[in-house]
Q: What sequence folds into this?
């Protein structure tokens, strides 16, 4: 039974990061903390420690339940930690997606839009491909 494991190995083995290199980089860049203290990749994590991970804009919080060194299946990995991340943290970007449209569609059999139709669509949506100013050459 293990008493301590490197933090980067543990984060990789419980599938928080896809590769150990990504886990090591996250620790090295200060995105992993034990309490309020930033740790190094060689930090030896123990049971019952609280780990804060800043990943993709989310502040995830985990409590270490069991220590493993090798990557295991997802069901086994979930038994090695308790996810203490508040639900508000996991849903903080949901408001950004509210009201966003899905994939656009055209009626079957109409084919691709013509050049004129494309310009009308872009004008309606306000997404012109060439909306930059050509008169920015003040180097004369």
A:
């Amino acid at each position: 039974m293990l008493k301590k494991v490197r933090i980067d190995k543990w984060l990789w083995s419980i599938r928080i990061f896809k590769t150990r290199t990504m886990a090591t980089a996250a620790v090295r860049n200060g995105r992993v903390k034990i309490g309020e203290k930033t740790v190094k990749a060689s930090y030896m994590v123990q049971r019952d420690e609280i780990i804060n991970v800043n990943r993709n804009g989310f502040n995830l919080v985990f409590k270490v339940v069991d220590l493993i060194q090798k990557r295991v299946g997802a069901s086994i990995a979930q038994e090695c930690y308790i996810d203490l991340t508040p639900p508000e943290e996991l849903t903080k970007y949901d408001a950004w997606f509210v009201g966003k449209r899905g994939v656009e569609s055209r009626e079957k059999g109409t084919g691709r839009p013509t050049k004129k139709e494309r310009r009308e669509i872009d004008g309606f949506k306000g997404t012109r491909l060439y909306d930059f100013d050509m008169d920015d050459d003040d180097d004369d």
